[in-house]
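Suppose you are handed a protein chain with no further information: no name, no annotation, nothing but its sequence. What can you learn? This example shows the usual starting point.
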Amino acid sequence: MTPAQVIRRIHMLCHDGDKDFVARTNQLYKDLDELSNDNILTHIEEGGMIPEDIGHDSTEEKLFAKYCDYLLARGLSLIGIPSSTITERADAADVEGVAVVGQERYRIVGDAKAFRLSRTAKNQKDFKVDALDRWKKGAEYAVLLGPLYQYPTRTSQIYQQAIEKNVTLLSFTHLGFLIKYRASINPLSVRAIWSDYSSLPNSQKAHPYWAKIDELVSAAAGKNVKFLRDYKIDVLHKVHIRAEEQLSHWENRRKEIEVMTPDQLRAKLIKAERIDSNIETIAAFIRTLEGVTDL
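A reasonable first move is to predict its three-dimensional structure. Written in C-alpha cells, the prediction is:
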C-alpha cells in the first residue's frame, strides 16, 4: 500500500459499522504489517501530515493518529529497538520499546504527532513534552516524533523543555534517515540520540537543538552530516508534492461550493453547524426532565 492507499483504507474502515475503534485499529495494523521494510520508509518520509479530507476530531483523524504511532513503533524496531503500540491504556505513551546494547537494557516510550497543513497556530501543549516526561514511568528515555517542517523554526519553550526533561524531539525525516542507513547503524550511537543533547545550554532556540540532533543522527547512521542534509532536501521535495495535493483538495471544494444552489448551501450549513443534531440532543434532555420531582 502507498500512503494514499492507507488513507483510503482508513476511510473504508471507519465506515464499517460492524467494527468498533479497537477492531478498526487492529485491522489497520494487520494491513500495515504486510508492508515491506523498504515500503514502510516511504510512509515514514511522508509521515505526520493529516489529509485535508479527513474531518476534524473525526474517527478517521483518530485512526490516522494510530497509523502514525504504528510508523514510530515500526521505525524504532527497524533501528534496533523492538517496539509496539499500546492501544488500550489511557494517560500513557502510545509506543513502548526495549533495546539491549551490550550488557545493558533500556526502555523508551514515544508518541507520534501529526498536523494539518491548514493549521497555522501551534503551541507548546501540542507537542506534549511534559506529558511524555510523565509517561516515562520508569523508562529511561522518551521520544516525540513529528514532521520536521511543523516544529518551531526559531524559538519555543519545547526545546528548553526537551533539554530539561530529557524528552527527545525527533522528526519523521530523521527516523527515515536512520532506517535508510540501518545497515551501518551503531546501537550505542543510537542510544546517544535519546540523551546526549541534554548537554546543550538551557535554551529555547531551535537551531542549536536541531544541529545537535543532526550530529547525533548522522553519527548513529555512520554517515557525514552532509548525507543527512541531502536526504532532508529529497524528503522535502516529496512533502512539497503532498502539499500540492492538499491545496488541490481545497481548490476543488471551492469549485463545488461555487456551483451549489441556495437550498444546497443552506442544507450544508445546517449540517456543518450540527443544528438538527443539537436540537434533538437538547430536546431529548428536556424529555428526561418530565415527571422528575426529586433531585
